[in-house]
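Archive record:
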Amino acid sequence: MAFFATRLRLEGDRVAGEARYLDGAGRVRDIAVAADGAVMLLTDEDNGALLRVSRE
């Protein structure tokens, strides 16, 4: 089973686009945005990880 984070682009109340990120990173347990705008993801695996995603 593959897990990934999905970003949905909305137009009004409709989904107008979809992008998948971190395919195969594991089941994502929690997502938060850091003060600098980076996205923090916590995976829920035996060897889970805290992933930081940023533009830099």
